[in-house]
Amino acid sequence: MIRFYPVDVTLVDVSEDKSYARFAIQPLARGYSITLGNALRRVLLSSIEGSALTYIEITAREEKNSGKEIQILHEFTTIPNVLESVTELILNLRSLPIRVETPGPKLLRLVVKGYKEVKGKDISAPRDVKIVDPNHYLFTVERDTSVSVEMGCMRGRGYIPAESHWPGDLREDWRELESFPPGVIPVDSDFQSVKKVVFFSEPVRVGRSADYEKLFLDVWTDKTISAEDAVKEALIILLDYHLIPVRDALARGVFLAPAGAESSHVRLLEQEISSLKFSTRTHNVLIKNHLHTIGELISLSPAEFAHLPGMGRKTLKEVQSRLKQLNLSLRSDKEKE
Hints:
Elements: E1 8-14, E2 20-29, H1 32-44, E3 50-62, E4 68-71, H2 86-94, E5 98-100, E6 106-113, E7 116-119, E8 129-131, E9 137-141, E10 145-156, E11 159-160, H3 167-170, E12 184-186, E13 189-190, E14 194-206, E15 209-221, H4 227-251, H5 264-269, H6 280-288, H7 294-298, H8 302-306, H9 313-325, H10 333-336
Antiparallel strand pairs: 1-2, 2-15, 3-4, 3-10, 3-12, 5-8, 6-10, 7-9, 11-13, 14-15
Helix pairs in contact: 1-4
């Protein structure tokens, strides 16, 4: 017979910079170390909030060439008197660990002149953005050339490819733009701050029984978040956003309707968004954000909807207009409560 005991969590080991930690969780009934370890690992590697660059704009000026300014239009080129190609420069910038403390897009600037090894500490950042590794190498500029780099950054989750970025998400003054201005290079944004998670278990005895397990969980981060805080956030995501809501729904008696008893309202919510005949741009943006049905649309509040990648003011108005025709609307904060 399986008996469940209160679980103890021990911090077995932690690195000096707190980017690595090992946790021990025991006692767990047989098989539960794999269940719990796998769930935590999946959340840690996919859903922990982090910070990343979103776009880069580069200009250069050669002092010998009458001070002519050169704007870099794409990544498949070179910058005069810079040792790295634009592709290498972008890769070095993307790998720079940064931490954005507050919501919303932020602006970073970098201006260098003459011979210089440019590092993270040379970036000018607002107070709510921290360059975690100031000695991170970026590129080298030779003499008689000045280079100016403007970068956007923000908080997010997961991975967003460059082609999924939309101007209005990255800067407030780009809300009405349909495409990026010339010279602005959108980049892939990897918001994942947890880089590696390993778990394993070993047998442990409880009383006379040896049918219990101890789970060891090893977590490595990019130093923008401590391993301990990452595990805490993973547990919040599992409990507060998934397990507890399901438990509470069942406690209130909320069950799925039996087959054949679906109402016309339920069938309406299950319709594909194509039935609303959105414009091509709006339809593509919704699909990229994994919004395929009317029910998925109305599950979001206007504020949540506006912060999705690619969503601008025009898109929001179009969605609200189409839903109004069906006597539907986006979820309000009151409904959320």
